[in-house]
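Hey, quick one: can you model this chain's 3D structure?
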Amino acid sequence: LNTISNEAFKGCSNIKNINIPSNVTIIGENAFADCGIEDVSVAVNLFNSGNIDCNPIKTLNLLPSNSAIKDIPNGNGFETGFAHNAKSTLNSLNVAEGVTAVGNYAFADCASLVTINLPSTMTSIGIYAFYGCSGLYSFTIPDSVTTIGASAFENCSLLSAIVIPEAVLNLGSGSFKACANLCSVIMRADTPPQISTEIFEGCSDNFVIAVPASALFNYQQANNWSEYGNILTSVSAEARILSAIGFEINEASKTLNGVVPNATNIYSLADKITVSTGYIWKVYRDIDAKNELLSRTFSPLIGDNTVYILLVSSEGITRGFYTVNIYKNHLFTLTYDYDNGGTNPDSEIVEEGIKIPYKYAGYKEGYTLTGATDGTKQWDFDNDVITGNTSLTAIWTPNDYTITLNTNGGTELENASISATFDAEYLLPLPNRIGHTFVGWHTQLSDGVLYELSGTWTTADDTELYAIWSINSYELTLNLNISEAGTVYGEGDKVFDSEVTFTASTNDGYTWLGWYDGDTKISEEGSLSYTFNMPAEERNFTAKWIICPVLLEKNLAAAGEIGGISGATVLGEATTITAATNIGYTWLGWYDGDTKVSEDINLTYTFNMPLEEITYTARWNINQYTITFYSNEGTAVSPITQDYNTQVSAPAVPTKAGYTFVNWYTDDGTFNDEYEFSVIPAENIVLYAKWSINQYRITFDSNGGAIVIPILQDYNTSVNAPAAPTKTGHTFVNWYTDDETFNNAYEFTVIPAGNVSLYAKWTINQYTITFDSNDGTAVSPITQDYATAVTSPADPNRTGYTFKGWYTDDGTFLNAYTISTMPADDIALYAKWTINQYTVTFNSNEGTAVNPVMQDYFKEKDSHSLEWLFTKMI
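Sure thing. Here's the predicted structure for all 874 residues.
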């Protein structure tokens, strides 16, 4: 565990104590929010984690961390980290060994802090570390401390005395400032530590600094110590309590601790305290030393009681301050529980802290009384004392008993007697006995009480148990080495050690050998029976025969049939074996190994039945046959020659230009009997190829011309060229098998043996545009390839007219023609003109004015009284 997550224990108001392991490095936000924690143990590296800041904390235990952090971290000014919300409740601080420093502001303003225990490893107390701890009246600075920071104990108003260890080298400014009740500071060092001003400003009016007698001069001369010259005093011995009857004195914490009986109503310290010579002591009820108990007597209450003792010099100066803790015992109830071992005695009222006598008696079957427990541990009657209401319960230890085991004819056990603990699990061994099954352990050889092999032992006495057995049966199995050779009798379950007899009978054609146990013959020669006692195991015996010693076989399984050995046979008797030959094979004869025993081609052989085994083989040769192929003008196919009845596959399909192979047939011309290839037949055969004529397609790509329908016809039939296609502006040349290059012109004769694609070749046409200028200047005709760009000629001229463009219609001039590219025809274009108008102005040479005349070109006008007449306007 190294992380406590956010809000992990939020709202757990019943948690009073937490001990956070030193390996925890992260505490999540609000991990312990709204908890009722009073006692916290935590490593110093998590000290200022606000996430364990819980208001009711009273005791804080700081532990070393697993990391390099050995110091209590600094607080954030007066907003101390860990105890910010707990400043009003923190009462006790305990710092473990290994922690070396208290950080700045670490416990500032912890007003309820009364007890501080610092370790011997502490070397430094930071500035404002315990500032404003107004409840702190007594405190021991460890001898290992070398530095006390500025204002470290400022405003600790109840602190009355302090001892500065010899190792302290520096006391910070105002380190004990405003400690209003501080009246005694004892310096251990001969060499004055370095101090600043205001270190003891605002302390008690009776304030005294006591230094070693040998060092008084050093302090009076030292920097900043000289201002305290009038209150420096030397001491050879401290004021202290020398003895206190009935108390333990702790000089480190300046405490006396004692206990008084519950019956104590008035308690006096007057005759119990002895102090250093030259001092008197006073007893006060309050830590402020305002309510003195003049008689040194008081009435203690049950539980904790605290009074305070001041040691005062003859001059009336306070030299010591002790806390006296007196504890008055409680009364508690003591009850006994015999735990079913007898009648429980009445409860008692006993005083806290006493030892109680051993009061147990009684009896519990199977158990021995060995003590008592208070529920958490076994009670030590010699040392344990009463600390509260106590209930003691008897401790009964179960007894061990001996079980003696009689195997009753079984094998001897390794442990014939075993130990069993009362009310505990026991385990009995499982015995063995040849030929028997264990029934159970009984207290008698017949009947008696049955004990399970395991369970809880509840017999409170030593016990002898007897093994009870049942006799076993075992299976007798009779086998036949040849199942058809005969029959066996007498198998089944047989009782152990009983006498058993079994027998057999033999069928025709077999010879009896005997009964065998494995490979060992057990029966008498010629006997069909055998008798024995059944052992403690299953038994298997085998009846063995041999078959007739003559074996017939064939060299070729399918070549024919053989026979002649049937029924019972007799040794030395003449026997004839026979064979029959199947189609496709040739008979060779009967053989003994590689030696032919039959004559010529006889299918039979006669011999006398031998004693030893012998094998005769019928031998044949398999015939070979040929399939011949006639391809009918296709490619040649080689004949197939193979053994009869062997698998045969069709040969590769032949080819024939313009035809598709259909199959092989046994009849030529009619092709009615299709042949199926499977195995070689028992004869030579001829097969004929059947063909179907193919159709092929000639397709035409007109290359932009009119579409030409493809031609689909049978191979090698006559074919004619289709009608030539047309293409605007072009003349069809021919069909070619190559596109674009047009090197291979195609000749139409017959359909080829394959599909053909043909491509149209074209030549581009030329056309002429002629121009009729309609009395204008002549324009030359234009002759160019179809669809090529045509440049308009220069406009023609005509006197008295303006050119308006070229038209395809003369006279009407409705269809204007735009010259761009050469059309796919010769065309004639006609010039369109508009007549011009001109104006004639007249100079009367001082005669009367004559209006100008505007008129179309070449139009006549009436004469004027002029010497000349315009009959033609230029």
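One thing worth noting: The domain at 331-398 is CATH 2.60.40.4270 (Immunoglobulin-like).
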